[in-house]
Amino acid sequence: MKKSKEILFWLFAVLPLIITTCFMPFLPDKVPTHYNVHGKIDRYGSKFTYFIIAISLCAIIVVLRLSVAYIMKKSYSSDKEKAHALSNAKVLFYLGMGISAFESIIIFVVLYSAYLESKTGSTTAK
Fold this sequence. Notes:
Helix 1 (3-23) packs antiparallel against helix 2, helix 1 packs parallel to helix 3 (79-120) and helix 2 (48-73) packs antiparallel against helix 3. It is elongated and about 60 Å long. It has a two-stranded antiparallel ribbon. With 126 residues, it is mainly α. It has helices at 3-23, 48-73, 79-120; strands at residues 30-35, 41-46.
C-alpha cells in the first residue's frame, strides 16, 4: 500500500479514540448509555464506558489491518491465487477505512448527545 493510504488508514483507526479522549473532560461521571425507540434515555453508565468502546473499535480495526498485512506477505503457489488474495486484501483495507470513518461519526454523535444531555437535560440543541 502507498504510504499516504497507510497513514490515512491509521488516522481513521485512532480517530474514535481521539474523539472520545477529547470529549472525556467535558462529560459528567454519569452519562446516557442507551436510548429506547422513542429517543428517551433508559440507562446511564460511567463516562469511561465510551472510552472502552473506542478502544474496542480500535482493536477491531488493528486486527483487520494485521489480516491485510498477513495476506499481502503470504506466498502463493500461483499468480491467480496471489491476484485473488491481493484483491481480498484491498477490499479488507478499504473496509477497515470505511468502518473507522463510520465509527468516528457514530462516536461523535453519541458523545455530543451525551454532552448535550449533561448540560441541558435534553438531547436536542437549543
